[in-house]
Automatic annotation (TrEMBL), chain A:
<protein>
    <submittedName>
        <fullName>Uncharacterized protein</fullName>
    </submittedName>
</protein>
From TrEMBL, chain B:
<dbReference type="InterPro" id="IPR027408">
    <property type="entry name" value="PNPase/RNase_PH_dom_sf"/>
</dbReference>
<dbReference type="GO" id="GO:0034476">
    <property type="term" value="P:U5 snRNA 3'-end processing"/>
</dbReference>
<dbReference type="InterPro" id="IPR050590">
    <property type="entry name" value="Exosome_comp_Rrp42_subfam"/>
</dbReference>
<dbReference type="GO" id="GO:0035925">
    <property type="term" value="F:mRNA 3'-UTR AU-rich region binding"/>
</dbReference>
<dbReference type="GO" id="GO:0000467">
    <property type="term" value="P:exonucleolytic trimming to generate mature 3'-end of 5.8S rRNA from tricistronic rRNA transcript (SSU-rRNA, 5.8S rRNA, LSU-rRNA)"/>
</dbReference>
<dbReference type="Pfam" id="PF01138">
    <property type="entry name" value="RNase_PH"/>
</dbReference>
<dbReference type="InterPro" id="IPR020568">
    <property type="entry name" value="Ribosomal_Su5_D2-typ_SF"/>
</dbReference>
TrEMBL record, chain C:
<dbReference type="Pfam" id="PF03725">
    <property type="entry name" value="RNase_PH_C"/>
</dbReference>
<dbReference type="GO" id="GO:0071051">
    <property type="term" value="P:poly(A)-dependent snoRNA 3'-end processing"/>
</dbReference>
<dbReference type="InterPro" id="IPR001247">
    <property type="entry name" value="ExoRNase_PH_dom1"/>
</dbReference>
<dbReference type="GO" id="GO:0005730">
    <property type="term" value="C:nucleolus"/>
</dbReference>
<dbReference type="InterPro" id="IPR027408">
    <property type="entry name" value="PNPase/RNase_PH_dom_sf"/>
</dbReference>
<dbReference type="GO" id="GO:0003723">
    <property type="term" value="F:RNA binding"/>
</dbReference>
<dbReference type="InterPro" id="IPR036345">
    <property type="entry name" value="ExoRNase_PH_dom2_sf"/>
</dbReference>
Amino acid sequence: MLHSKTFSKKTRGGKVQKLVREVYLRDDIYCGASFCKVCDTSAARFTASASTILVLDTNVVLNQIDLLENPAIEDVVVLSVVLQEVKNKNTAVYNRIRALCSNPARKFFVFSNEFHRDTYVQNMTGESPNDRNDRAIRVATRWYQSHLGDAVKVLLITNDRENKKKATEEGVSAETIESYVKSLGQPALLDLLAQPASEDIIMEEVEDLRPSKRKVVYPEHKPMSEITAGLTSGIYHQGKLRVNRYNPFEAYVGSESIGDEIVVYGRGNMNRAFDGDIVAVEILPQDQWREDESLSIADEDDDNEEVHLVPSSADDAPRTTNSVSGSASDTNPISGRPCGRVIGIIKRNWHSYCGSLEPMPMPAGSGGLVYALFVSKDRRIPKIRIQTRQLENLLDKRIIVAVDSWDRQSRYPSGHYVRSIGEIGDRDTETEVVLIENDIDARPFSAQVLACLPPLPWSVSEQDLVNPIRTDLRHLRVFSVDPPGCKDIDDALHCMMLPNGNFEVGVHIADVTNFVHPGTPLDDEATQRGTSVYLVERRIDMLPKPLTEDICSLRADVERLAFSVIWEMTPEAEIISTRYIKSVIKSCAALSYVEAQARMDDSRLMDPVTKDLRNMNTLAKTMRQRRIERGALTLASAEVKFQIDTETHDPLDIGMYQIREANQMVEEFMLAANVSVAEQILKHFPGCSLLRRHPTPTKDMLEPLLRTAASVGLNLDISSSKALADSLDHAVSDDPYFNKLIRIMATRCMTQAVYFCSGDLSPPEFHHYGLAAPLYTHFTSPIRRYADVIVHRLLAASLEIYKLPTIFRDRPQQTSIADNLNYRHRNAQMASRGSVELHTLIYFRKRPIDTEARIVKIRSNGFIVFVPKYGIEGPVYLTPRGEKGGGEWFVDEQQQKIKKMDGSLSYGILQAVKIHLEVVEPQPNRPKLQLTLL
Amino acid sequence: MVGLSVGEKYFIQGGINQNLRSDGRKRDTYRPIFVETGVIPQANGSARVRIGTTEVIASVKAELGRPSALHPDKGKVAIFVDCSPVAEPTFEGRGGEDLSTELSVALQHCLLGGKSGAGAGIDPSSLVVAEGKVCWDLYIDGLIVSSDGNLLDALGAAIKAALSNTGIPRVHVTAAASGDEQPEVDISDEEFLQFDTSEVPVIVTLTKVGRHYIVDATSEEESQMSSAISFSINRKGHICGLTKRGGSGIDPSVISDMISVAQHISEQLITKLESEISAAEAGEDEL
Amino acid sequence: MEYVSPEGLRLDGRRPMEMRQLRAQIGAVAKADGSAVFEMGNTKVIAAVYGPREVQNRSQQIGDQALVRCEYSMANFSTGDRKRKPKGDRRSTEISLVIRQTMEACILTHLMPRSQIDIYVQVLQADGGTRSACINAATLALADAGIPMHDLVTSCSAGYLNSTPLLDLNYVEDSAGGPDITVGILPKLDKVTLLQMDAKLPVDIFENVMQLAIEGCKAIATYIGEVLLENTKQLEYRKGL
């Protein structure tokens, strides 16, 4: 082993420090070629017959990662110096290249050139770090060529002109990525190439159909040094730009420095920033602060408000800009919120987007190079211009496109085609789009994951029964109550009258952690997936099917392993004692909610299970009552339920989900079990428990609710959850649906509950607002939620059944797991909503319908209605689109009413209206729902 | 602490009288000098100097700071000396503090010139990055590793060598801030500022033992001294600083004699030292 | 932060089980009875031993064994950011104590009653593992001074980062905040004389990491043995034997 020692020197801003690091140069770093005679080939990657080996420059990895992911690119050397540079510049790309390198199917090999005796390059005086790294890449390429000899051609792929020139001078063969891809003779690959900024001039000419447009569209971004200086001196403000989901011309930058959100109106002020970018913003002079900005960039296509699913929480609701304003006049009243413009982008959040090409005529001589505009499904993303050679194939497809650059002269960013998903409108394609948009991994489980499953058929073994940690509860009358057709049953209940008049109530949860062990590929996969995703017609499992539907599922009449929470309760539902045990159970019935409800309601039935159900229902009602008295909110959401044709998977019927007493009963016991478990784990592991909290909504968040309520003469008390719950209870009118509407509106004002690690927050912050519980966690659905798996492990450790896995000692990692769970959880919900929206559209395609709707918001040219029956929300226009107000209608802001000028007609909030619902296709392949007033 | 018998004392004094010291040197010869630079890579500059069995390490660290209000056009230089108990068990705990302070003050007198910085070996105005706002502060640290007399000369030589080894990153003021704000600075990784150390003086200490004075006294000889004067003299033969230590008085006429002797010796010392330094620098580059 | 790359290399190019480069030199301080410089990578310490000699402070004298004292100090320039370090701060007092106890345990103090042995260690550069380097340097200095010992104590540290046990942490790895175990052993007697850990580790992992540190100590012991042998040969040569 060769030890050599060199020094590098780094300085940090502010305080200048000289840092000295050792570098040990080695001779045991191998080249990765299986045909190499000198090196150890156990870790070799390249194909035995490789004739060309590619060495990538950093710029190629950074810009052309989509191309690199294509299987056509093989036998690639990734140098550690390149990895380091990529990591510093773009973590997302770094993760992708790392994934490529660790994928055994791809021939990507990481060569640690920075620690190799012959390829280490020392900084020369006067050489910039960039030049030094370029030189390191060339040295490594040359080493490869001399190491592997003439049998193989080693090719440096670089788009850096200077580097290529130097390489050629030094006798290293080098090519640009374009010419290399061309040499492969697969024209379709060329579409995957990211457009380098240098070619913008050519693209400009293509765009330049109207001569007037060849000009600078956007102001310049300030240089980084100026931005940093501006940030420290407080002229500029830094924050993440979030574009309004429902109005892409409006964005917000949350700034810590001014403690408020800065509103950015219009593409010009956004100055090429994307949603999620970290930007520097300059506050505009106060006289330019505007309430609403519809000017944006001229003749950009009309901002269509679309029909969509009713949001179920503040997280997916449109942001409230004081909706009614601007009205017919264009006075742009001064607003109280600061407005700003983006002067620089600190960190880009570019990734790839799903969407389709804007319809365009086939240019003559098609098949050649064509520029097309891509419209993302995510409306927050501007159109992206791409170059393609296969326009006719792509026009009716959903495709994925990545962004490459956006210069000042281009109205739209330029990007490149990544891959196509399928035909627009096709249900499978659109479902995949929903999955991709929400970053959901729907791939089948890998062989390594499946290898972790116990062999099938599986049954409770003798060892399980004699295992001292397990209690045999097979004698208990356990049953489950779930939605009809539920296959992944993760909870079951029992209820038994005790001789002393008390009840023993048990909640039995599938013992998933008996099969999913920490550190296994199965566990890693579940950690990543975080949750099962429920779409209308399919389910994407967190765990493989044998586990979810068989081994863990607490089906009727089979013995199953469970983790049980057993209480002794008084008839008044006071918990006297709680036990937590691993058990073996045998469910005697798998009931659906409807069945359970029917049994309870049928007074003739006196069988033991029905009696148990009735007892439990009584207890549950008491518990529920007590919870509500504590201030738990009864929230409502407009959940819809589809009936799906089992053959075609097309929706047959659609309607609101009905909630029965049986649902509430099961829910009540699950809540109680979760609370009990939360207390137990927090007591034993105060620093590393996974809990769930629901933050108290701020007054600002409830503002839209209060405004709506006030306009119908309702006064809500929001001082506490208890007060709000009470005033929601009192919000009644002649309209039977009124109360539910108000509750739905209240729900959508609140944020969602989130998982967190107990060590990261202080106990008062653990509070769950919606449930009015000081502590809460998720324990009851380990088959479909990973959080529950973690909680099961914590609970088992608190009972000293198992040791706590080491991961719980690593706070940062635990926090990142909690963050991932929140992210996955939210995405799963978004995907479900997306799927429902998609099916709603499919459903109404054949069935235009007249129905009743409620007005929820007044607009200058119409209003937004909520259709309770289908759980959707959308605009109804009183005047044709494009004409603002038109003089015929005016908005009464005070009363939240829109009135006809002659006073003959007026519409107000929560008013019921009859509407017509149908699917229209204003553009080919772009169906959408349209609501019109009857 | 050197414990000597009467015979030993007599032997040392007698040797000096006869211009043949106990280790065979003449009164005006130095022990062999050995210089090594760059010994502390984390510092901006460093050197180890060995004179006989006396060994010291000096390091230079540069930090960005603010010039004092009195001298907005000058950087700051500070010298501290530490006595390691490794060198002498009596330095244990706070035992070395008196000596540390004495040496620090003496070095400051000898190397840093007056309060205004005039006459200093390093031009403090070369340390200014932005006048009145940003300057480099140099912290010079000396550490005594092995002590066998003549510490001041060794430290002076080590500091000179460390300074010539010092590279300070070049700094650009990026955005001029208004008013009292500290401006932002950009640090270049590639370029270094080197000091011109030819003006840095060397220190020659003449130790008076009996009627004669000697250079480069060992600790045994120092125990017999009546007084000592340290001259700091630059290449041009100018005296940059002067400290007298020891209790007994010296006849003024002797002092001028000592000065001329010191000037003469300093010439040899500077030549010797600079050749050692350049040899050490060359050796370091080869690594 | 990635401390071990997927290729299995640490930030400085070492593999997890590798130690930094060791260097040692005996006899750096002329006046001391024994002295040594010990380097582990960029960590560099000097140790000097004075004694056995008359007890300086009579009240400390022990009738049947030698008094062992130790002082640890750090040079101002030893760390990346320069600080004036007051002598006798908590950290150095603690390290002094650790070194003293470790060395005292292997010195045959009963052979030198009513005498005193002073061990001084001076850190010239700190880049992680100073504690271990000090002990190793002190061992060499004691051997150089010819002080009778049971065995040559050696010390090495190991940590646990990115779910990997790492031998001999450098400063960057040390400041990652992971667990860090310092072990001192008597290699011939195969006994652990020093064991310190900060942060927490599950027991099974702790055993692995400690075992790794012990392996490191053994490697250092071999090296120290070679250095001493070489030094003795030099002495013989100079004496013309």
